[in-house]
Write a structure and sequence with these properties.
The protein has 9 helices and 4 strands. The longest helix is centred in the last third of the chain and has 68 residues. It has a domain of 326 residues: Up-down Bundle (Outer membrane efflux proteins (OEP)). The N and C termini lie far apart (78 Å). It is a lipid-anchor.
Length: 468
């Protein structure tokens, strides 16, 4: 019996060795889709293409130097539900990889049974007891299982990059929401100051009207100016409240349980270095995810092509069967089997060819999506580079015009008190001064937004200052 089992094992191993020698992989060699990357940004000094791979960045928002923002970012990682969803998707991809790898190993099973029965040929009822074990292993001759594992690994890498992309996007959204909230606070403070000034103007015109120096129209114009400023003041308060609600939801908290102290001060806009990092394609998680999906699609071609080859499985069964447990382990009660099995679809109506064509089309789609992701990334960087530069210039002009507008308002107010100009001139000067102040705050917010987006576009941006 042992001699027969040994011979059977030898024949099975010989079949396996012959199959492995004749084995050939069915997955086409993977090559990253070619991209015609320019040697430099149009709006900056340096750009060099690099290999797409996920590089997790540190606390990039620290360049804004705002401790409240730093604290909110730390809370974001803990509470945001979208980030939790992305992490759950990553865990599912990790489990899928483990399941695909399990197919490379043999499967083992054991069984035990007992039964009692009687037939006409037996004088009495008979009890049968059996113990058995089985093993099977699909020989990956054509690389089907290996291709599935490669595809699962690539999808896991893409899922990890997706997780990082969601985190980066949420961090940038939190920063921009925070900047907008601080801008709304500053606008509210500016309007509050304007309201106080307009109230003094109303009192002044009423006093002048009572002594016959000003007209009723002057009083009406002063009151109209005051009411418009109050309406704008209410609007900025509404905007600030809604932005605070948005921050609460980003942090995974009900708006009723979240309050942020009013500061009415915007962070400073960080300087953008003249030399940008050369690792744009390395650092962006969306690009890394797109490239990994191309690799996964390429592996799926191998899976589809392997369907044209037979599936070879080695299986073995052994056990004991007898009337009593005491006699089970004796040689006469032994049974076993060992041998390979092969299965191949002879005719499928073109289903396998369609599967290969579909996999190839999916790979082409993934490659096109990768190229489009790279192009979109380049556009985003270029757009925000030019925004950073032009908004700085715009802010300079607004600061200069603000000084001129304040000077013009003082002169016009004195002229009105002297009776040399009408109150319409005062209203125009007040409107201009307030409009410029609000435009300056809005430009500061847009400069922060452009810097924030550029940091996001570069997946962490330029070198960060050391921690305090």
């Amino acid at each position: 019996m042992r001699s027969e089992l040994s011979h059977a094992l030898q024949r099975g191993l010989a079949t396996l060795a012959a199959g492995l020698l004749a084995a050939c992989g069915s997955t086409p060699p993977y090559q990253r889709p070619a991209m015609d990357i320019p040697p430099a940004f149009k709006e900056a000094a340096l750009f060099q293409p690099a290999q797409p791979r996920l590089l997790l960045q540190g606390e990039w928002w620290r360049v804004f130097g705002d401790e409240t923002l730093n604290s909110l970012q730390a809370q974001l990682v803990i509470g945001n539900e979208n980030l939790g969803l992305a992490f759950a998707q990553y865990r599912a991809a990790r489990a899928a990889l483990a399941a695909s790898r399990a197919a490379l190993a043999p499967s083992l099973g054991v069984g035990a049974s007992t039964s009692r029965g009687r037939s006409p040929s037996l004088p009495s009822a008979e009890t049968t007891v059996s113990l058995s074990g089985s093993a099977s292993w699909e020989v990956d001759l054509w690389g089907r299982i290996s291709a599935q594992v490669d595809g699962a690994q690539a999808r896991l890498d893409a899922s990890e990059a997706d997780w990082a992309a969601v985190r980066l996007s949420l961090q940038a959204a939190l920063a921009q929401t925070y900047f907008s909230l601080r801008t709304a606070e500053a606008q509210t403070e500016s309007l509050n100051n304007a309201v106080q000034a307009y109230r003094r103007s109303v009192e002044m015109t009423q006093d002048r009207y009572r002594v016959g120096i000003a007209s009723a129209a002057d009083v009406a114009q002063a009151q109209t100016q005051l009411k418009l400023a109050l309406a704008q003041w209410v609007e900025t308060r509404r905007s600030r409240a809604q932005l605070e609600h948005a921050l609460a939801v980003l942090l995974g908290r009900p708006p009723s349980l979240f309050t942020l102290d009013v500061m009415a001060r915007l962070p400073a806009v960080p300087d953008v270095p003249a030399q940008l990092p050369a690792q744009l394609l390395e650092r962006r998680p969306d690009i890394a995810a797109a490239e990994r999906r191309v690799a996964a699609a390429n592996a799926q071609i191998g899976v589809a092509q392997a369907a044209f080859f037979p599936a070879v499985t080695l299986s073995a069964n052994a056990g004991y069967r007898g009337e009593t447990i005491a006699n089970l382990m004796s040689a006469p009660h032994l049974f076993w089997s060992l041998g390979p099995a092969m299965a191949l679809a002879v005719f499928d109506g073109g289903a396998r060819r369609a599967g290969v064509d579909s996999a190839q089309a999916a790979a082409d789609q993934a490659a096109a999506a990768y190229r489009q992701t790279v192009l979109a990334a380049l556009q985003e960087v270029e757009d925000n580079l030019v925004s950073v530069a032009t908004l700085q210039e715009e802010a300079t002009y607004l600061e200069e015009s603000q000084g001129e507008a304040r000077r013009a308002l003082d002169i016009t107010t004195h002229q009105y008190r002297a009776g040399t100009v009408s109150y319409l001139n005062v209203v125009a000067a007040q409107t201009t001064a307030l409009s410029i102040e609000r435009s300056l705050l809005d430009t500061h917010n847009r400069r922060l937004a452009a810097a924030n987006q550029l940091l996001k576009n570069l997946a962490g941006g330029w070198p960060l200052p050391p921690n305090p």
